[in-house]
Design brief:
The complex is a heterodimer.
Chain A lengths: L1 H7 L8 H10 L3 H20 L6 H19 L4 H10 L3 H5 L5 H21 L2 H10 L4 H25 L5 H27 L9 H5 L8 H27 L7 H21 L7 H17 L7 H8 L2 H11 L3 H23 L1 H23 L9 H22 L16 H10 L5 H29 L1 H12 L6
Helix pairs in contact in A: 2-7, 3-4, 4-9, 4-10, 5-9, 7-9, 7-12, 9-12, 12-13, 13-14, 13-17, 14-17, 14-18, 15-16, 15-22, 16-17, 17-18, 17-21, 18-19, 18-20, 18-21, 20-21
Chain B lengths: L20 E10 L2 E11 L4 E5 L6 H8 L7 E6 L2 E2 L4 H7 E4 L11 H11 L4 H14 L15 H13 L5 E5 L7 H16 L3 E5 L3 H7 L2 E6 L2 E6 L1 H6 L6 E7 L4 H9 L3 E6 L3 E6 L4 H13 L4 E6 L4 H14 L19
Parallel strand pairs in B: 3-8, 3-9, 6-7, 7-8
Antiparallel strand pairs in B: 1-2, 1-4, 4-5, 9-10, 11-13, 11-14, 12-13
Classes of the chains: A mainly alpha, B alpha/beta.
């Protein structure tokens, strides 16, 4: 018994069971051990060989490259298989039957990756101190940069965890391939010039330019970056949790309430701040996009108890259910309401073009969602997979249209065809002839508005399909709660 | 292996004024397929009930709804007095679930595996350690404590699965095909564990394709076909059920068996199935015990030197196939109400 107790008390009870499990597994994997060893060997060599101030830029860029690769790509990537493996091995159901909610399962998996990344990041401290002693580097910048990379890494881990709920193996493979290509391109475009002394933007530049406080200083920028990162991580993990939770769970209420709160607070900050007029649309558009992707890729819930929870709260509950019940059928109403508010704020601060840009940005999310509902994919149990596929196809089509029309080369043609793709309308309007510009905007906005209209029509049918569940819910709400 | 099931202070409260499991007109469809189509039954506390049906009959869907892993389109289901849709958390505390396909984790020992689930179920400190030790002793996993959980045989993995399901000392166990793919020895071990659990008053709903084993273990059997319960009753009733009015007997005689064959040719209601070395297999066109006794009496009165007269018990598999045939012909009536449960296993 004593031996067992020694083995089992290696982690305190206070730590989440999922974190304990993932750490026990994760720290034993060959990848973690190899990454740690290789990274430290390289760091020792680079620090010893590049010591001194004479070649500080090259050493910094090389270390940046290695650390970025490890923290932002190698360590978060296993998250892409984390929930997929649980689903494949049929272990997720046994987890759901414990006291662990879907949210805690997802949070635990993400938390263990974040902790492992933190261990790796902290293990780099001696090299930073050593280089500070050698001279030629700014300690604060180094630490902020390292923290920034860790933050990006944990956001990537949350994104990968979200993608790990996708059932299609090939789609997960494609995502990891695209992500790998992105990292390679980023390395070529950003790190290589610095390694060879070509300079580049300051590594803490993003903190002083973070909207909605551009130019307001690094501390406010850091706070905003942290808050934004927290919300993005929450949103991604909440999407993942929804996708593995039992059908009778209503996570949409929490997710959409948080999104609404973030949207409202950001709107208030924008309205009272003295920031330039270019940022607000982009910030609110970003919130709107992530909130809409989540809301439009949930299957329409048909579990009576989910509706009954709203119906028990009278007419307010019934009204709230139209926006907050799990499923895309209420999600489109939620998304439209946010879009309308974002457009109004962007119009008030920056004018009609900014409002139109927000609307077109939202239409870029609605278009693939509408395609999911128009195509046979509407019957699929998973709507996120088809949405990603249509989104990628839409973007490929956008790129091809943009290239074929030679946007950058010729300003003499008004590219009317570009109105077909919401994300092209903005570029199209910029290169349109001045006399055509207004007409072009109207045409583009009208076509972009067809997608939410299609979704609204589809949602009416989806609401109709939930009629039985809502009828049962009304009966449940009218009778007092009892056990059987 | 400890011969008593472990008990935990973590065990959830159960309402014993109501049956352990109640299913009422349960329905569940997947697109156009009606997987469960109006299933109703109830199981009293402390009973072991076998759930029998062909592949795709609706067993797993019904069990998953009871385990709160799926939701019904209509009807009601309650476990331990709690509605599975309204109070899934309460139900999960009362329930131990063994799925048909059970996965383990890489880079995790048996001990760590059970520790993870014990933590996830809310056990802390010494109670957690004690509980894990009890479960490992009961399922005979102690010698395998340091073995990687994904490097075990199918039988060992099933014991681990059972151990996990027992950690919170559930009063109700739902086991979906627990013996599938096990070798004979592992099957015997699993059966033994289930018997111990049953003898300690746990309610067990167990599905299996091996009907003879279910017949031995269960107080009663539920037969499901095309999403509906078509029969329920104990194994003996099942063997005798249906419209099959015939009895198979094996008769051995002293001396030349040809005398027996000649006698059969002249006898009424008796047909020869096959000749054997010392006798023959016969079919009597009735299952009335008086008529069967009459046949034996006539044999003796006619001077046949009968040394053995053995009535063959109808196999459950045969009874099940006959029942499916009757369903196809539309000659099977409405299933009778669930009979009072026998105390066969509870007292053993």
């Amino acid at each position: 018994m004593q031996t067992i107790a020694n083995t089992l008390n290696d982690f305190p009870d206070a730590l989440s069971p999922m974190v304990v499990k993932e750490l026990r597994q994760g720290l034993r994997t060959r990848m973690f051990v190899v990454v740690m060893l290789v990274m430290h060997v390289l760091m020792v060599i680079i620090t010893l060989m590049g010591g001194g101030a004479q070649n500080a830029d090259g050493v910094t860029a090389t270390m940046d490259g290695i650390v970025t690769l490890i923290l932002c790509f190698i360590l978060p990537m296993p998250a892409l298989q984390a929930l997929a493996n649980e689903i494949k091995k049929n272990t997720l159901e046994t987890l759901v039957l414990t006291e662990l909610s879907a949210g805690r399962i997802v949070l635990g998996k993400w938390g263990s990756i974040a902790l492992q990344s933190l261990v790796v990041a902290l293990s780099l401290m001696p090299y930073i101190v050593a280089r500070y002693v050698f001279g030629g580097m700014d300690m604060i910048t180094e630490l902020v940069t390292l923290g920034g990379k860790w933050l990006i890494g944990v956001i990537v881990a949350a994104l990968m965890l979200c993608f790990s709920t996708l059932k299609q193996n090939w789609l997960r493979g494609l995502i990891s391939g695209l992500f790998g290509a992105f990292i390679v391109l980023m390395g070529i475009g950003f790190l290589l010039p610095r390694m060879f002394g070509a300079g580049g933007a300051s590594r803490t530049y993003f903190l002083t330019t973070s909207p909605p406080f551009p130019g307001s200083g690094a501390i406010l920028g850091a706070i905003f970056a942290l808050l934004a990162a927290t919300w993005v991580i929450f949103s991604l993990l909440a999407i993942a949790a929804t996708r593995i939770a039992p059908a009778a769970t209503n996570l949409a209420f929490l997710k959409r309430s948080v999104n609404l709160l973030v949207f409202t607070v950001t709107s208030l900050v924008i309205l009272v701040s003295k920031s330039p007029t270019t940022g607000p649309g982009g910030v609110l558009g970003g919130i709107l996009m992530l909130a809409s992707i989540d809301a439009l890729t949930e299957r329409a819930n048909e579990v009576p108890s989910v509706y009954a929870a709203f119906y028990r709260r009278g007419w307010i509950g019934r009204l709230a259910s139209w926006f907050l019940v799990p499923g895309w059928h209420s999600g489109i109403l939620f998304s439209l309401a946010l879009a309308a508010a974002a457009c109004a704020i962007a119009y008030g601060r920056s004018g009609g073009e900014a409002a139109a840009t927000v609307w077109l940005g939202a239409a870029g999310i609605w278009m693939p969602a509408a395609l999911v509902q128009i195509m046979p994919s509407r019957r699929a149990s998973d709507l996120l997979g088809p949405w990603i596929i249509y989104y990628v196809l839409c973007n490929i089509m956008t790129s091809m249209l943009a290239m074929s029309m030679g946007f950058a080369a010729s300003r003499s043609i008004t590219p009317g065809v570009s109105c077909l793709m919401p994300s092209l309308v903005i570029n199209g309007a910029k290169i349109a002839q001045a006399s055509d510009s207004a007409r072009f905007w109207h045409f583009g906005l009208t076509i972009a508005s067809a997608w939410p209209l299609l979704l609204l029509i589809g949602s009416l049918l989806a609401w109709r399909r939930t009629r039985y569940a809502r009828g049962e819910a009304a009966i449940m709400a009218a009778t007092p709660l009892r056990d059987t | 292996m400890h011969m008593t099931a472990p008990h935990s202070s973590h065990a959830a409260e159960i309402d014993r004024s109501q049956p352990a499991i109640v299913v009422d007109n349960l329905r569940r469809s997947f697109g156009d397929l009606r997987a469960v189509n109006g299933v109703s039954f109830s199981i009293e506390h402390g009973k072991v009930v076998g759930f029998v049906g062909a592949n795709g009959a609706g067993k797993t869907t019904t069990m998953r709804i009871l385990a709160t892993l799926d939701h019904p389109d209509g009807g009601r289901a309650s476990v331990g007095g709690h509605n599975v849709v309204h109070y899934p958390t309460k139900v999960r505390r009362l329930l131990g679930w063994m799925p048909d396909a059970f996965g383990t984790y890489d880079h995790m020992t048996v001990l760590e595996y059970l520790d993870f689930y014990a933590r996830a179920l809310g056990f802390k400190g010494e109670e957690r350690v004690r509980r894990i030790q009890e479960v490992m002793d009961f399922t005979d996993l102690t010698p395998l404590a340091d073995r990687m959980s994904n490097k075990m045989s199918k039988g060992q993995t099933q014991r681990l699965c059972l151990g996990r399901a027992l950690l919170h000392d559930p009063q109700i166990l739902i086991m979906d095909e627990p013996a599938a793919g096990l070798d004979p020895r592992a099957r015997v071990e699993l059966k033994q564990l289930i018997r111990i659990l049953a003898s300690e008053g746990k309610t067990i709903l167990i599905s299996s394709h091996i009907l003879s084993e279910l017949g031995e273990m269960c107080d009663s059997l539920l037969f499901i076909d095309k999403g509906a319960i078509v029969h329920h009753g104990d194994a003996d009733t099942m063997r005798r059920s249906g419209s099959v009015e015939e009895t198979l007997v094996t008769v051995q005689v002293s001396g030349d068996p040809a005398k027996l064959v000649e006698w059969v040719l002249t006898a009424q209601n008796v047909k020869l199935l096959e000749e054997a070395r010392h006798g023959a297999r016969l079919r009597i066109d009735s299952n009335d015990e008086q008529i069967i006794a009459g046949v034996l009496k006539r044999m003796i009165l006619d001077g046949l030197p009968v040394i053995d007269f053995h009535r063959e018990e109808r196999r459950l598999e045969d009874a099940f196939i006959d029942m499916l045939g009757q369903i196809d012909k539309g000659t099977l009536g409405t299933p009778p109400p669930l009979p009072p449960q026998s105390e066969k296993l509870s007292s053993s």
